[in-house]
Write a structure and sequence with these properties.
7 helices, Arc Repressor Mutant, subunit A, globular, 150 residues, homodimer, 3 strands, mainly alpha, DNA-binding
Chain lengths: 150, 150
DNA sequence: TATTGTTATACTCTATAACTATA
DNA sequence: TATAGTTATAGAGTATAACAATA
């Protein structure tokens, strides 16, 4: 029987547990949680995103998104605008204040990233990325019911 | 500049996001959260563990552990016993009821695991495990301050 | 009717620091 | 004094379902 620490979730969690503290120390300096960071990070790359797109890119459930956006908006880092084309939709964008923050934080995040990249040789990263992405894609199309039915 | 969805945390999170729903559907049938599962899973492999060991193996912070154990104990799935050798220490073990649960759930968790393993060839798994464990080890010994100082 | 985003509810987990009892 | 576990506090995120406005 498989042991706990050889299970894929635990391997992934251990890796995250190794990597995230460095990031969290950085985020903490700017009073950001990991989820808030993901949202800002996504918004800094584009003009704006609709709530549904943002939820998908950040892997955050839609009802969670609302609260996290509320907090970011209250701090003036993002802003919500009702779309004119479809009055149901909301477009979310970084504010100027948010972009100022980006200029300060992104280089430091990049430094962490570079440090991490240097731990493994380039070809290991390619293999890692490919394997994990394959897994995620394959599993996204699979439910527990299908597995149990085998 | 690096994009969000190419960052290691996001790659790992996406993989978890692909893999966990299948497990969560299973856990939900037994009213278990992911964290509760980790604890039970660890306790099913051994006679007992001390709180500190359990926290380490499950990657759960000690104060979180207390509440999660409270809930598991209230359901009669685990039990806490004060150690006689060191009256400060607490040894935590699965109850008979917990072991009955194990017999029911573990084979289904194993089925998910087998399914996941079949997605990638054996050698990819070896590479993946090795790469991620190397990363976790290397990063655990690193603080943000060190990275920033480079 | 279907979709977008939001609200409501209830709960689990987290972070940090301080505390109790042992050692 | 140091350690093991717990408590206290305050908050963030999650899950699920239901809802209002709009399409």
């Amino acid at each position: 029987m498989l042991s706990l620490n050889a299970s894929l979730p635990m391997i992934l969690n251990r890796a995250l547990d190794g990597v995230m503290p460095a990031y969290r120390q950085l985020f903490a300096q700017y009073d950001l949680t990991e989820q808030q960071w993901r949202i800002l990070r996504a918004l800094w790359e584009v003009e704006d995103l609709r709530a549904a797109e943002l939820a998908e890119q950040t892997l955050l459930p839609k009802p969670s998104l609302v609260g996290i956006l509320d907090r970011l908006e209250a701090r003036g880092l993002v802003e919500r605008r009702r779309s004119n084309k479809d009055r149901r939709a909301v477009s979310i964008a970084s504010t100027a204040k948010g972009r100022t923050l980006a200029k300060e934080v992104l280089p430091q995040a990049q430094a962490i990233h570079d440090f991490i990249r240097a731990v493994l040789p380039e070809e290991d990263w390619d293999a890692l990325e490919h394997a994990l992405n394959t897994l995620a894609d394959r599993m996204k199309a699979t439910t527990f019911a299908e597995i149990a039915a085998e």
